[in-house]
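Annotated sample (chain length 273).
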Amino acid sequence: MNGVLQFMSDRLVTFLNKDVKGCHSCTTNSAEALRRTIQPGDVLLVEGTSRVSSAIQYLTQSTWSHAALCVGPVAGTAAPDGEPHMLVEALLGQGVVTSTISSYGQAHTRICRPVGLTETDRQRVIDFALSRVGHDYDMRNVIDLARYLLPQPPIPKRFRRKMLKLGSGSPTQAICSTLIAAAFESVKYPILPHVELLPSHDDAEEFRREILYIRHHTLYAPRDFDISPYFHVAKPTIEQGFDYRKTIWGDSFDEAQSCPMPERGPGLSARSV
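Output written by the structure step:
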């Protein structure tokens, strides 16, 4: 019986991991630009093109369908070309693994950086994620997502997020966003906490005090790191020093060939996007 269930699970994973026909991601950052900008503790958001990515994007009403945590070079791991593994992520069909920055060099990505995180807590977040490498992917989440790929009446927007059950919450199983949320939860760093407003001693409305309550890590989706007021969006082109005056536009290419080429700043030119 277990063999039959494993066979069906494997077939479902294969189906969900296939790209949606005609779905393409806009590459906004090269792998090299990502490597120059990303730092340990940063969250890398990815716009996926698979069937399971489409389900997550639909239910969360967001571009982002996957999240990975940058932990810095992982000792003893490297790609065949020697590039070190720098990410920890939970992948469907593989579980919690380490991977390279180049894995997402052709994808639309965003770097979300926790603001004010101390070096001690940053290391604790990284250690937490690394300690989960080898854990299984939460298959309950897969089944929840798969049902939304079947023909069905449109789901009202206000109900979509509530209907997404982000896994079973088992400590030995994870999905991408819950793994990272649990890591930050371990040091009490907020992502999108529940906020309770309390009256202050002053009658003025603007002086009300706020008390934050940590949401459980199973309630988070990739988009929450993007909209969190506690994470800064780090864009490689800007972080590396963008100067619009050094941009070479396609309609001026012929003129540029007959004139000295201006020095190009780091990042992507308009023609390479």
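Annotation: The first helix runs from residue 2 to 17.
Annotation: The chain is about 30% helix and 15% strand.
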